[in-house]
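Support case: user asked for a sample of complex input and structure output to validate their parser. Sending the pair below.
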Amino acid sequence: MLARDAWREMRGRVVFWLSAVVLALAVAMAAVPGVFAAMGPNERCELRMSKRGPASGAVFGYDLQGCDYWSQIVHGTRASIMIGIAVTVAALAIAIVLGLLGGYYGGLLDALISRVTDVFFGIPFVLGATVVLVAFPDHGIWAMTLVLVLLGWTTMTRLMRGQVIAVRNMDFVEAARMLGASDRRIMFRHILPNAIAPVFVVAMLNVGNVIAGEATLDYLGVGLQYPDVSWGLQLNVAQSFFAEYPHLLVFPALFLTAAVLSFLTLGDVVRDALDPRLR
Amino acid sequence: MRYAAHRLAQAVPVFFATTFVIYAMVFVLPGDPILALAGDKPVPDQVLDVMREHYHLDEPLLVQYGRYMLGLLHGDLGETFTGQPVSELLQDRWGVTAQLAATAWIFELAVGIALGVVAGLRRGGIADTAVLAGTTFVIAAPVFVVGYTAQIVFGLNLGLFPTAGTDEGWPGSYLLPGMVLGSFGLAYVARLTRTALVENLRSDYVRTATAKGMRRRRVVGVHALRNSLIPVVTFLGVDFGNLMAGAVVTEGIFNLPGIGQQVFQSIQLQEGPVVVGVTTVLVMIFIAANLAVDLLYGVLDPRIRRARA
């Protein structure tokens, strides 16, 4: 019912369709880069073309290694999209389980979960991630995902717990308990559907934030490493040359910003649609 | 009072646990720092043993951590593996980061609330749409993209601000980096203020105030805005800690010699003591800010004080 109302609200909005189209394109680029890019990752690079600007045959110009920049940027989509979605799904799962357990049972378990959440909430993101990533230099996409989950599950968990506490004493939960439903059934069939909406909105916003965070770590040089291809790495290279060769900075920044912007906008639109007070 | 004591009692174990997690994380950094200090030259075992003992590297992790915390009570952050006290190394750098964070914070507070009020008063108007679109864009653009763009446009092309370094002192050298660092928080402050104001302007007490014949300015300024600022205060408090920690990137772009740059170098050089020292102080600031916000929250909104005590 709520979902159908929300859908009716959303489909009338231009920004919803704009961000949906951008995201569909980004996901397609991540899934089948070969359709969009002429070259494979780091393929057919010619050093003599290094840093040349846009020209016929290479609309985005060439990167430092003389690779076709358009192809490189298309291949960079996969790292961002995959990490963004994987981290958020994992963090959402943690948030749902811990939030339900802590919020529903309360007491000692809740206190324990809340304090552990506080501990991880207090670790500064860039410093914490840098320390871990430097400790394990040979990390790929999955290790990056793990680090970002480790530092990023707290916000949703807190929100989920608050939502569960708000819902757990409502009449329909009492009714279910009277009818003899088990704790697990009450939590997953009755409380969860009524508590998840705001957490889901934050999760969508979170995808954008994770993508930006991952790019920041790449940019600082502690994230993904060559021969991986990612927008953050391209921006890391661009920082030394952008004054003379602005195209190195502009194009990956444009893609990165468009992807993050779309996730954030989509989250905003969904929130507006789910929250009748804002109509 | 009971509420304050309760919150304080919660904050203390969190502080120890967080700093311990960081301490343990830095401890697992691979490589032997003593060997790294010697470079390529072989080190006699005797020297190794003496050095390990001097830096207490031969003791269990928990004992090392306890020793570190005891030192912290006296303001001692340990020493680097070249024998320089960490607190001395960071002495000049705190000022730079604090000035940067303060500039960003004031910028967030003043401009963010102003934009939020302008947008919230005319919901759906041109100003509102512009603020919403602008803030979404600022939130989406990573800080280094904003930073480089600002550096090229305002520093290089227009020549309004110095592009790098701290030669001009405060405020000259800190304005542009501060605005870049604060841009993200500014967008959040503006949006929070706007949403809360829109909601409160529709409430019964605002209608009552208007019906009493109160002037619009007073209704908005005193009645609606005061309640709307509660979530904003929360965000601003927590964000001060984030600004200090998030300064790494901004300091890199504008070449400001703050703690962010120092700690980033130290991580890559495996200077554990510096990393732990800085992070411990940052965690302290972060937890203190959180605590202050929680207490202030109780003052601003009596309902919270009663509900939680």
